[in-house]
Amino acid sequence: MERDDINVLWQKATTATDEAVMDFLAGSDVVLDRALFEFDIRASRAHAEGLARVGILSQADADALCERLDALEAAWHAGEFLLDERFEDGHSAIEHWLVSELGEVGGRIHTGRSRNDQVAVAVRLYLKDRLQRVAESAGAVARVCLDRAAQEAERPMPGHTHLQQAMPSSLGLWWAGHAEAFIDDLALVCHIRDWLDASPLGTASGFGVNIALDRQGAADALGFDRLVINPQAAQNSRGKVELRAIDALSSVTGDIRRLCWDLSLYASQEFGYVTIPDAFCTGSSIMPNKHNPDGVELLRSMHATVVGARAELEAVLSLPSGYQRDLQDTKAPVLRAFGRPLDGLALLPRLLDGLRWDFERMAEAVGASLHATDVANEAVRDGATFRAAYRMVADDLAALEQRSAIDSIAARTSPGACGALMLETLEARLRHWLPPAD
């Protein structure tokens, strides 16, 4: 199916089109815009209402445009309207719909705006929505971790550094450590979501327009906190806001990677500390005995998608001020970063809630030598210098055989340690940042 000239927004009578060049210029925009389409429709509705407030449209025309935009959104969600190769992108599809439905009135929707601010506002709305989802999922992960930290606070397990046994630790400390990481991630996501909560709608191609647009009214209608005031700043923020949003997501997926590495090790036969829920495991195509934690491994690899998207964005953004067509190539990596990783993040609370630990095996794995630091600290309390106590304990590790892992973790009462997890403080932090339910 060939693209109709009416769906090429920049088409002029004096401009010859070449289908191969057109295909290259458009790229996969019309496919990518499927993720942004509902946000573009919302922004078009706010723009039409704003044009009526400043007298560019009659109220009747604005109402007709908004009614047809509502119909388009309904048709889109019902699968009755398709974004396909008929259109250059989602913006041209919206304008085509309005013109076909309303004639000349539909052609007035583009007054005072450019595709530049159309895509900029749609992307910010999209990122606000996706970061809210990230925040909700990160909060849910932290919630499971805190609950299990409270339930399993006194269960001993070996603590490791350099992948070598180090000191007696507890399952409570392990859970609480991951909980705090995700609470910090939640805070960062909320900060970045609020930081990019500014409307570029009405800055047009980066120079403003000679119409006194009600930019603040349109921003309020779209739920933005404030305006991007300067039109050049609006254009120069393209890619910048996407990078920061990906940074926030990367903080979450980086912590998922570490957590899943722990689970991969602990689920191995060599450790045998934990059993992964069956729903997150598969078998082998050749080895009947295998029960592979594929879900954990693929959650671990999500971070690569996010890092790759960020690198792609960073490589594009070596640009001067103002709009450059290179910015079209920032869209795909952003949508990729907030695609599958969000689906995986939403599954993580269920995985964590379904973990089953072998408490006896973990306790038995706490070797006698792991008590060395405790004994050295006890000698310091009795008056020895730490270095003298260190050497004394190192010279007689066999004397540690009678030590108890339970006693060790109970005595570790420095703030945040096994015997003083401060879960109430972490709980308060989580409640502070937890996004409100819709």
Largest sheet: 2 strands, antiparallel
Widest sheet: strand ordering: 1-2
User: What characteristic shape results from the CA principal axes?
Assistant: elongated
* Overall tally of domains: 3
Distance between the termini: 41 Å
Question: Topology of this protein?
Answer:
Blueprint lengths: L18 H8 L2 H4 L4 H17 L5 H19 L12 H13 L12 H37 L4 E6 L2 E7 H25 L2 E2 L15 H7 L4 E2 L3 H6 L3 H28 L6 E2 L18 H23 L14 H7 L2 H14 L2 E2 L1 H6 L7 H10 L4 H9 L10 H7 L11 H11 L5
Parallel strand pairs: 3-4
Antiparallel strand pairs: 1-2, 5-6
Explain what you see.
- By secondary structure, the chain is mainly alpha-helical.
- The protein folds into three domains: 5-111, Orthogonal Bundle (Fumarase C, Chain B, domain 1), CATH 1.10.275; 116-364, Fumarase C, Chain A, domain 2, CATH 1.20.200.10; 368-433, no CATH class.
- The chain contains 18 helices and six strands.
- A two-stranded antiparallel ribbon has the order 1-2. A two-stranded parallel sheet has the order 3-4.
- A hairpin with a 2-residue loop joins strand 1 and strand 2 (164-170).
- Helix 6 (115-151) packs antiparallel against helix 18.
- The longest helix is centred in the first third of the chain and has 37 residues, at 115-151.
- The model has no long low-confidence stretch (mean pLDDT 92).
